[in-house]
Amino acid sequence: MSISEYIISAFRCLSASKMRTFLTTLGIIVGISSVILINTIGGTIGKTISTSLMTIANGNIMNIYVVDKDAETSTLSDIMTVEVESDQFTREMVSGYEEYMQGMVSVFNQTGIGTGTVGCGRDTSNVKAFLISQNVLESSQLEMTEGRIFSEGDFNKKAPVVIVSDKLAEKQFGKESAVGKNIMLENTGSYFDGREFTVIGVYKFNDVFSMGDSNPTTSIYIPDVCAELFSSEKGVPDFYLQYAINEGADTEEVRTLTEEYFDEWFEDTEYRSFAYMLTDELDQINGVIDVITKIIAAIAAISLLVGGIGVMNIMLVSVSERTMEIGVRKAMGADNKSIRIQFITESIILSLIGSVIGIITGLIEAKLLALLIVNLTASSNAGITVDLSVPVSAVIVSVVFSFAVGLVFGVYPADKAAKMEVVDALRYE
């Protein structure tokens, strides 16, 4: 018999009892669909986090922090635990750096003034205030709902203007337009406290972590030149440098050159610079998600072994039921190899049928779960885009594993059928 004849014969035998075939493959179906679903969930979570955070950071943003020379820094959480004095970055250093890199980067000045409150006669709003340069907002992905971003004229005039969130605008001014209204910054512990700023723009605030919070902390943005209006300090308090790397540039080379440049300024101090990119943190997050996904998928794959035992059990039953058929085939000249191949083929096809149904089921489950999450996040205004990611490798591994299950668990029943004596098989009732 040819391979095609073995396959046709296997389908004919399996279709003779459709319900038994389906129930036999049920363990394989559950195992495969679970593995596909778990891997899809893990891949989707990782891709969604990456997409969301890379969108926020514009994908190629590097930050330079001032840290203590003795401080061990490798992650963002390490940076946040390092305390340094104010004014370690100066405008001279920043302008010199931009020239030093010869156009490889676009320098963004972003100064954390601090966390405080804003009020204008109504309830106060919690804010995190930033001094920023013009090109920060020009390259940002802020979704403006009213007004405009800073113009070159705002920086030239050192105008005390501000951009606020729609949450703050609604809390402070209700249904009235916030553009043109004045707000006062308080409780930041800086020389900006008690200063009034005119709102020129309102952006849409999205933050999944603040869902249900009636007074979330939102960011407000002030031109960095305003620091010269209220203070004679040359440096900028709690400042870190942020810049966008040009497309195609070697990020590791830029990182090294950046740290070398700023470390020269800090040579005789107790400080040093530390370059950090969002991708550094994303690599660690994705690594953790990948490990967890693989562990859970391995546990789910145990059900495949249970399914394999079911396949072997039903094949043994099939051998017993078809003892007379085996005897007749042997009496007509069929050898042991032919009998063995026939039953192994049936076992493999049985497993592959289960894997195909399991893959389809797993993909449908993943799609339904993604749609459910999209609907939930849409109704909560969380601003999350769920990016369904089906790992092709998981599908391929599932098919290969199913083939292996059919082969391994079909060997014993096939061998038992092949070793039957012709006389015994023909006398079997």
H and E order: HHEHHEEHEHEHEEEHEHEHHHHHH
Largest sheet: 10 strands, mixed
Radius of gyration: 33 Å
Average pLDDT score: 75
Number of strands: 10
Please bin the fraction of helical residues. 40-55%
Structural class: alpha+beta
**Helical run tally:** 15
Give the SSE map.
Blueprint: H1 3-15, H2 18-56, E1 61-68, H3 76-80, H4 91-100, E2 105-119, E3 125-132, H5 134-139, E4 144-147, H6 152-157, E5 161-165, H7 166-173, E6 182-186, E7 196-203, E8 218-223, H8 227-230, E9 239-245, H9 251-265, E10 271-277, H10 278-300, H11 302-321, H12 323-331, H13 336-379, H14 392-418, H15 422-426
Parallel strand pairs: 3-8, 5-7
Antiparallel strand pairs: 1-9, 1-10, 2-3, 2-6, 2-9, 4-7, 6-7
Helix pairs in contact: 1-13, 2-10, 2-11, 2-13, 2-14, 11-13, 11-14, 13-14
Structure description:
The structure is a single chain. The protein is an alpha+beta fold and 429 residues long. The protein folds into two domains: 196 residues, no CATH class; 177 residues, no CATH class. Helix content is 55%, strand content 17%. It is built from 15 helices and ten strands. Strands 1, 2, 3, 4, 5, 6, 7, 8, 9 and 10 form a ten-stranded mixed beta sheet that branches. Strand 2 and strand 3 form a beta hairpin. Helix 2 runs antiparallel to helix 10 and helix 11 runs parallel beside helix 14. The chain starts with a helix and ends with a helix. The relative contact order is 0.19. About 2% of the residues have low confidence.
